[in-house]
Amino acid sequence: MNPKISVKNLHLHYGDFHALKGVSIEIRPCRVTAIIGPSGCGKSTFLRCLNRMNDTIEGVKTEGLITIDGEEILHTGADLIRLRKKVGMVFQRPNPFPLSIFENVAFGPKLHGVSGPKKGGRAPSLEEIVEKSLRAVNLWDELKDLLKDSALRLSLEQQQRLCIARLLAVNPEVLLMDEPCSALDPVATLRIEELIHEMKKDYTIVIVTHNMQQAARISGETAYFYLGELIEFGRTDRIFTSPEKKETEDYITGRFG
Amino acid sequence: MIRINPRITEKLAFAFLFFSTLLILVPVFLILVLIFKDGLPALSWEFLASYPRLGMRAGGIFPALLGTVYLAAGTLVFSLPIGILGAIYLSEYAKDHGFKRVVEVAIINLAGVPSVVYGLFGLGLFVIFLKFGASLLAGSLTLGIMSLPVIITSTREALGTVPKSFREVSLALGATKWQTIRRAVLPNALPGILTGTILALSRAAGETAPILFTVAAFYLPKLPQSIFDQAMALPYHLYVISTQVPNVKLSIQYGTALVLILLVLAMNIVAIVIRARFRKRKLW
Ligand SMILES: Nc1ncnc2c1ncn2[C@@H]1O[C@H](COP(=O)(O)OP(=O)(O)O)[C@@H](O)[C@H]1O
Ligand SMILES: [Mg+2]
């Protein structure tokens, strides 16, 4: 099977600081790939290369090759708008806009030119997109009568689901998740994991987590990063039972990190 | 060296700090009391809505009040768009070197220019060189330039309080930078911008020096008909009836001062209310 995302010899510098050192990895479609490693090892930095969010930081230099569906994304002429629609991102802290629930989900579609109700035509209306997205994250039944309420009144778990719905509304293919459960309690964490499990049939998911049980529970492949390098990458069950590298084993067995 | 008991120094420090704070309040209080005491009797609908009579020794202040409102509106028209757009450029687009530094220093200096210098500048540029004459246009432009630093600075502060995560989310959803500013940043900065703008306007409404040579008329028998006409204005009218016209009743002078101060206070209160309501609503 062709990889969805292929990264070759990726280097990234924040000014003089060498944050990613020659990372090469192939990520398969419709799978959950977990990225683990001690804090500061470059997990978020790596993730943010895949939708070029690092471009928003001054003084960042990226070298190497990243292709998504065979298309090179790092060259200067790459269409960032199309890339970011296709490769969406969920952040560490739930971060809804101080708008209504409806307007939060509608934010992306409105950017890309879907407006009010459009009955009859083939393109789905804004209302349909919002409903479909909220259904996909299992929020519709709870919130369908509260769409005009402020999103800030929701629980943290609902907010994070809403943020995922907001993302699904622009029809992404890849979902990048940067420790999406770190602000949530254990019960909410499990429920979000279930959601990730449901979503992987439709989306290629790359998730950063510092929680190894979580990586073991939800991912098909796991990548272990250390000090900006990809130390080991392979099937999650193998990584967690018989890691090839000593560093990986030390980290997984909790001897450091 | 003598060591004073720290309990005593604590009491002394408290006393001095409290006393100093009290001293700040005293002039505010005295100004209000004085002006209200002598001004309130003059205040009436008649006073606000009628023309001055008998060489400004009787009648009302309507043309001056209206002129000040016109000037505030004109100031808004010239300073708000340029101020907000410039602030957005500086905060969101400009790279942190060269040009941006120069503009920042220019803004700081603009804020420090004495208002009478703005007046002379307006006279030289708008009234004489551009041949607008002493007019609402020249006065509004002069006040507009004077208001720019406050509007730019408060807009930049307001933009800075919008969480970075809003911008990130918007960009990550495929928004362009401008879409992000329009839809994710500006709506959340608006109350701050509004507050700063109103404060700038309230200052502009009370200034005398910048309008002295650019628009303000000693006395006009009729209202301005276009932006190229002179106008009367409250601060200058107050100056005129207090120093240039003999035998004006005290109540008329203080009544005029009261209207001016109430106008400015009202604007400041609106600004404070906007800010307070926004603080309450803000949950992030
Ligand atoms: N904007 C930045 N500027 C400079 N250094 C950064 C920046 N962001 C991250 N870093 C550094 O890069 C390294 C990797 O950071 P990050 O990718 O956030 O790590 P992780 O997500 O694995 O905890 C850290 O040492 C961090 O200090
Ligand atoms: Mg991180």
Q: How would you describe this structure to a colleague?
A:
The complex is a heterodimer of chains A (257) and B (284). By secondary structure, chain A is of the alpha/beta class. Chain A has ten helices and ten strands. Chain A has a single domain (5-252), classed as P-loop containing nucleotide triphosphate hydrolases (Rossmann fold, 3-Layer(aba) Sandwich), CATH 3.40.50.300. Chain A is 34% helix and 25% strand. In chain A, helix 7 (186-199) links the parallel strand 7 and strand 8. The radius of gyration of chain A is 19 Å and the shape is globular. The two termini of chain A are 34 Å apart. The relative contact order of chain A is 0.18. The mean pLDDT of chain A is 92. Chain B is mostly helical and 284 residues long. Chain B has a single domain, classed as Orthogonal Bundle (MetI-like fold), CATH 1.10.3720.10. Chain B has helices at 6-39, 45-49, 62-93, 99-112, 115-129, 136-161, 164-172, 177-206, 209-212, 234-244, 250-281; strands at residues 52-53, 58-59. In chain B, strand 1 (52-53) and strand 2 (58-59) form a beta hairpin. The termini of chain B are far apart. The complex binds adenosine-5'-diphosphate (ADP) and magnesium ion. Magnesium ion is lined by residues 43-44, 178 of chain A.
In short:
The complex is a heterodimer of chains A (257) and B (284). Chain A has 257 residues and is an alpha/beta fold. Chain A has helices at 43-50, 80-86, 101-111, 126-136, 140-143, 156-168, 186-199, 212-218, 236-241, 246-252; strands at residues 5-14, 17-27, 32-36, 60-68, 71-72, 87-90, 174-178, 204-208, 221-226, 229-235.
